């Protein structure tokens, strides 16, 4: 049996750049939303002429589209991820611009007929509306309110659920920015962590889950997690996801 200390050492050593989650195979699972974001996004990309992917991470999801539009641009605020994205998107002729999630977008008004984003940290709805052309579409899968609260509460103690990521709040913000919401769907999805190394890598990679996470600071809680998994089997949490599509009519 692998010891707690061995799991910790492994979890600390795994690289966490980009959004490739293949390391988790056999270590953690996450139920996928029924709507298949990557497929739907790829269909919209194939119909677009000028498209923008906001907060692309390492560009892994965008790189999987079957057909690139004439102009393909992505933004990313973390330089190591931006470099990964440049490598992943080069075969598609994609360009990566470094911009933070709360920055003004460095593009002219009405530049894009499609703006997409998978799991944005935050959304500048005013900027999305500004860079969309008339009849342009925003299409995004986002993290919903209360996502992974079981894991968060285990690590940090009971935490209030912030309404910031509520789907209806996103609808209101999109509408306030002048967009017309065409569709809004949400689902709760089961996640399982089979060992504490997977928990460590996840918290190092998805840094907003437990923003203060470091191994030394949470060593005792990680030890408790290891004991929980050893006694009860995989740790179960639930992610919250919603899909929103909105259009700029004029």
TrEMBL record:
Protein origin, superkingdom: Bacteria
Question: Boundaries of each Methyltransferase type domain copy?
Answer: 52-136
Q: Name one GO biological process term.
A: methylation
What UniProt keywords are attached to this protein's entry? Methyltransferase, Transferase
Q: Look up keyword Transferase and say if it applies.
A: yes
Q: Which Pfam families match?
A: Methyltransf_11
| SUPFAM superfamilies tied to this protein | S-adenosyl-L-methionine-dependent methyltransferases
GO molecular function terms attached to this record? S-adenosylmethionine-dependent methyltransferase activity
Q: What is this protein called?
A: Methyltransferase type 11
């Amino acid at each position: 049996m692998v010891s707690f200390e061995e799991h910790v050492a492994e979890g600390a050593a795994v690289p966490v750049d980009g959004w490739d989650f293949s390391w988790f195979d056999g270590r953690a699972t996450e139920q996928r939303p029924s709507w298949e974001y990557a497929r739907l996004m790829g269909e919209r990309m194939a119909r677009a002429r000028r498209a923008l992917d906001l907060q692309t991470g390492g560009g892994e999801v965008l790189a999987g589209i079957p057909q690139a539009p004439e102009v393909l641009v992505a933004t990313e605020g973390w330089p190591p991820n931006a470099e990964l994205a440049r490598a992943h998107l080069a075969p598609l002729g994609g360009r990566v611009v470094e911009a933070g999630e709360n920055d003004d977008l460095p593009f002219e008004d009405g530049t894009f007929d499609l703006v997409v984003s998978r799991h944005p940290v935050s959304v500048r709805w005013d900027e999305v509306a500004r860079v969309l052309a008339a009849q342009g579409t925003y299409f995004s899968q986002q993290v919903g309110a209360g996502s992974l609260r079981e894991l968060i509460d285990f690590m940090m103690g009971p935490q209030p659920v912030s309404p910031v990521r509520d789907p209806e709040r996103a609808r209101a913000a999109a509408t306030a920015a002048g967009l017309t919401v065409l569709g809004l769907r949400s689902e709760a999805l089961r996640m399982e962590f089979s060992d504490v190394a997977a928990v460590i890598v996840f918290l190092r990679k998805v840094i907003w889950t437990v923003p203060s996470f470091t191994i030394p600071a949470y060593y005792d809680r990680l030890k408790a997690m290891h004991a929980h998994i050893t006694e009860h089997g995989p740790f179960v949490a639930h992610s919250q996801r919603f899909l929103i599509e909105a259009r700029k009519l004029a």
